Amino acid sequence: MISLRNVSKNFGDFQALQEVSLDVALGERVVVCGPSGSGKSTLIRCINRLEAHDSGEIVIDGITLSDKPAKLDRIRCTVGMVFQQFNLFPHLSVMENLCLGPRRVLGLSAQDARARAMKHLERVRIPDQADKLPRQLSGGQQQRVAIARSLCMEPRILLFDEPTSALDPEMISEVLDVMTELADTGMTMIVVTHEMGFARRVADRMVFMDNGEIVEVGAPKDVFTAPKSERFGTFLKKILSH
Question: Which keywords are on file for this protein (predicted)?
Fold first, then answer.
């Protein structure tokens, strides 16, 4: 489903990714963690081509990422993205935010786009918020709208870039509950997060990154009890002590 081979990415003199290789299978749930600046967000932004990698190869659902517009369009229909800061259009209602992509990119009629949007708003348990503007919603509600917006494109893969880090503590669980339900449906997911309870419950594998490299990969039951690398062990102790 997803294959990265020796992927590197530089921002000027800073090397954000260093020869990263990773495979993610269909239906797999992978949690990516690591300290700030370790390359986690850059990794998933390269997967959906929000950032262009400098070297190496990325193959998504059989498509090799390149700058050809047709391939980019196919990738972005296949790969959904949920951002830390929601990235909703503030001047559009919730319903309008959800209908925009299906109408403009997929060519759905207004009626079909609205029906699809309502289906996914029900899925994230906020159909009653359809006509509100984003600023009228709580942070947790806005993030659930963002998840529903991604689902409206019917992606095969969902990427989450620290989806709870901008939320108040009491709102985190409502977003993680929705993500857990999505995982239970068999959605292929790569989640950048420090929510270790979520990782224990949902992840098939955990990926620990540091200094732009993948340091360790393993099943949660293994890495939580006996991480192989000292760096990962130190990181887990700090995270779990909070």
Answer: ATP-binding, Nucleotide-binding, Transport
pLDDT, tens only, 71-104: 667 777 789 999 999 999 999 999 999 999 999 9
Predicted model pTM: 0.94
Residue 168 amino acid letter: D
Question: Residue type for 149, please?
Answer: R
Tokens of 27: 């239906």
| Cβ contacts of 14 within 8 Å, gap of 6 or more | none
What angle separates helix 94-104 from helix 139-151, to the nearest 10 degrees? 20
Determine how β-strand 29-33 pairs with β-strand 55-60. unpaired
Q: Which is it for strands 63-64 and 55-60: parallel, antiparallel or unpaired?
A: antiparallel
Which of 157, 103, 98 has the alpha carbon at shortest distance from 131?
98
Q: Give the Cα separation of 154 and 148 in Å (integer).
A: 10
